[in-house]
Amino acid sequence: MNERRGWITSTGLSAFFVALLLTGCGSDGSSLENKNPGNNDLNVVVAFGDSITQGGECACAPYPARLAGLIGKVVYNTGVGGSTATSNAGRTQSAIDKYHPAYMFILYGINDVIHSANPASVLPALGQMVQICKQNNVVPVLMTYPRPMLGHNLFAGPTISLNRGIRSLAGAEGVRCVDLEREFADGKDPLNPEWRTSDLALLGPDGLHPNDAGTQVIALACADQF
Question: Can you list the domains of the chain with their CATH numbers?
Fold first, then answer.
């Protein structure tokens, strides 16, 4: 994580290449591949999610646009601000039908818990997204959320529970996971030692959406998979 932030602050090439060696929660260090893409395009990626994917809360380029520049592939941003996982699982098929991606990054669920959903109730929708990808020869990559802070700290516990479920789902489904909770972490919560706090230097004023530096961390973490 320190290497990622060093790249952002100094743009040193050595730090950049070290950052690309770091892996997410479901990576074994090998490059992400789609060995059976069917009719899908190996040079196309879909970023699927809510406002963090869409990027509208930061006056900066969203992570999908940055990811495209890092990996040399077309990355379609299908994020919809305010959307929930439980009401958007079916949208997975529409995105695949429209863009024919070989890969899909899935960052969904925090709006569900903000609207009082039990984190465990969100996982079937994420599982459905993964299954739709597999049925269509698309390689899915799940993502966890940065731990909310400041005005959204109320949702820290449910988000951490959601993230645990996402990691378990990724393991059960045998898919990669980009662990943004870990990527944004800067220490332990003094009131809840089993929780990690997020680095406020990577978050916007609402404590939920990433700022420019945080958005770059997301893009780099996703690029690490390739």
Answer: 2-223 (3.40.50.1110)
